[in-house]
Amino acid sequence: NFLFTYTRCMIEENQLPVEFITEDLYHSGLADDILSIKTYYEQQWIARGLNIKYAKFLLPKEGALKEPEVEIESDAYRSYNRSKRSGLF
């Protein structure tokens, strides 16, 4: 959720063109032959009741991106058998 929220804020801050974005890929109707392939980690998240988020957008060919000035809450969940590795959050 943290990374998706940060990405969405970057898209908005920089007015990046979005091809599509969803907070629930497999129930959005967007999953084509490629996007419907569930990765190992996606299967883990789905088994835990978490939605798979997806964003497809374009980056500018040149110029720096602006960082959004937002505070985003850290995620409480981790990959199986993984603990928090840093004191940043």
Description of the structure:
The protein has 89 residues and is of the alpha+beta class. The protein has a domain at 2-57. Helices cover 22% and strands 10% of the residues. The protein has 2 helices and 2 strands; from the N terminus they run αβαβ. It has a two-stranded antiparallel ribbon. The longest helix is centred in the N-terminal third of the chain and has 12 residues, at 2-13. The protein is globular and about 40 Å long. This is tRNA (Guanine-N(7)-)-methyltransferase. Its EC number is 2.1.1.33. Keywords: Methyltransferase, Transferase. GO terms for molecular function: tRNA (guanine(46)-N7)-methyltransferase activity.
Tell me the layout of helices and strands.
Blueprint: H1 2-13, E1 18-22, H2 40-47, E2 54-57
Antiparallel strand pairs: 1-2
Main traits of this protein?
single chain; 89 residues; alpha+beta; two-stranded antiparallel ribbon; 2 helices; 2 strands
Distance from N terminus to C terminus (CA atoms, Å) equals 14 Å
Strand order in the sheet with the most strands: 1-2
Q: Please, how many helices?
A: 2
Low-confidence stretches: none
Beta-strand fraction estimate: 5-15%
Helix content: 10-25%
The averaged pLDDT comes out at: 88
How can the largest sheet be summarized?
A: 2 strands, antiparallel
Task: Put the structure in a nutshell.
The protein is of the alpha+beta class. The chain has a domain at 2-57.
